[in-house]
Queue: 2 jobs
Job 1
Amino acid sequence: MVLRELKVCLLGDTGVGKSSIVWWFMEDSFDPNINPTIGASFMTKTVQYQNELHKFLIWDTAGQERFRALAPMYYQSSAAVIIVYDIMKEETCSTLKNCVKEIWQHGPPNIVVAIAGNKCDLIDVRVVMERDAKDYTDSIHAVFVETSAKNAININELFIEKSRRIPCTDASPPSGGKGFKFQRQPSEPKQSCC
Ligand SMILES: Nc1nc2c(ncn2[C@@H]2O[C@H](COP(=O)(O)OP(=O)(O)OP(=O)(O)O)[C@@H](O)[C@H]2O)c(=O)[nH]1
């Protein structure tokens, strides 16, 4: 079976639920008392997709202002970004849009962008309309999905949709070899990020 590697970076404001999304994807569980990320955290998970194994290499970045300058170090070496906003906080959409602009300017060419409107379990108190978010993401040709890390809505789908769109690196060991091929190495940050 072919093994493919997909480097994915999560970006977005503090508190939108990036770590919770990753945690659900990794562990099938939700922690209401999860701590804010410091710097960034790295995780891997391998899933079977059709007749391939997809190994996700996931960088979960910190959304707090004081860590934003670090973000380019992670997205510049990624094949895909998931930019998360909170459907209850309009201002997190502004951050998202700034983030998209920055990635277009400073990210790798052909990076795949997905937008996740998180906390859709709180649909009754939403302030960001799904239609508006969808129109925006269509305009930038990004994948769009509303998610809930709390109720496990669309989390696996988000990662699977990514893996369908990313031109994956074949990480199968060359015949006789044992190692994995990595796509790109992190480089120095160019400027502060989303
Ligand atoms: N109701 C609800 N709460 C959520 C959801 N996802 C995350 N939360 C809560 O939102 C808060 C922030 O979640 P985090 O996952 O730490 O957010 P983050 O984007 O990683 O934050 P930083 O690490 O600071 O960048 C926590 O209290 C979570 O329990 C969700 O889908 N629904």
Job 2
Amino acid sequence: MTSQPSSAAVQVQGLSKSYAVHDKEPGFVGSVKAFVNRKTRQVEAVRGVSFELAPGEIVGFLGPNGAGKTTTLKILSGLLHPSGGSARVAGFEPRRRERAFLKTITLVMGQKQQLMWDLPALDSFLINQAVYEIPDQQYRATMAEFTEVLGLEGILKKQVRKLSLGERMKCELAAALLHRPKVLFLDEPTIGLDVNMQEAVRAFVREYNERHGATVMLTSHYMADVTALAQRVLVIDAGQLVFDGDLHALTERGSGGKTIRLQLRRPATSDELAAFGQVVSSDGLSAELTVPRGEVSERAARLLSGLDVADLTVEDPPIETVMAELFGARSAPASAHPAPEAAL
Ligand SMILES: Nc1ncnc2c1ncn2[C@@H]1O[C@H](COP(=O)(O)OP(=O)(O)OP(=O)(O)O)[C@@H](O)[C@H]1O
């Protein structure tokens, strides 16, 4: 199928991918049965997904476990061939994995590493310089930039196996972006990192996006990554795109209420506050209430006239709450330190 020329950085039309899966019962008997009578079924991981990303856009790609996020990113990076539909990235057809295409993109998978374990990261960088044919001057400039933004000083010459998880992830990112790709596919780039390191990775991605005008498609269990970096989100569920729009519009979809935060000049008890909404927290002079979405102005007006209010703000519910509502049991709220397997 030929695609229309487009200025989009990523253009996906009716993309599908199914995997052939051979089920096997456990144990020796299961192995024999599978050998004699091999049963194959198709898993439709991605089903008719279409979207476009503009150059320079950062987009969050969300969905519960097994929704098809990694499969989509692998297709867009040319690691998997789609079963149907089409994809174009920076004008290239990913499945052809042309040299110019590979120099234009990067895929970072937080769960996988590309750095060589027994060597210092600097050695892996030099290999990438050769593989991507990065001119010396550009290599030095990029290294200087990354060393400054990521704080790599002092860790580049250490054996990778001796680095902390956070230090290693910084080096992984530097290695993956050394060739200055224009399109970044980031699959869980902050997984397992502590809060400070997550913030460092976010700052790096933001800075890279601003300096180089790169397009970024990002999956993360940590909603803070998405809210900090992306205005637009794509939500995929069971292989199908169920939402494409801005974060705010996604939170509007939730049936939950809005949050009113209060600062009071004179303390109010929880019982007094309960007359205005559901009390989430209160410590006398500050409080957080949940109020029904359609009654925000009326409740706020009552609060202002009924209590001695110094400050009042209205906020959308946290994105974690909305995702939990959308995906129920398949969705675990993203805390600061979820278990690595926890998903949206
Ligand atoms: N190589 C494979 N062979 C067979 N099935 C696969 C393979 N890779 C993925 N799948 C299945 O395809 C579906 C989508 O998987 P995928 O890894 O794309 O989801 P995901 O959204 O990235 O999930 P997670 O958030 O858990 O990483 C799942 O049902 C998964 O079991």
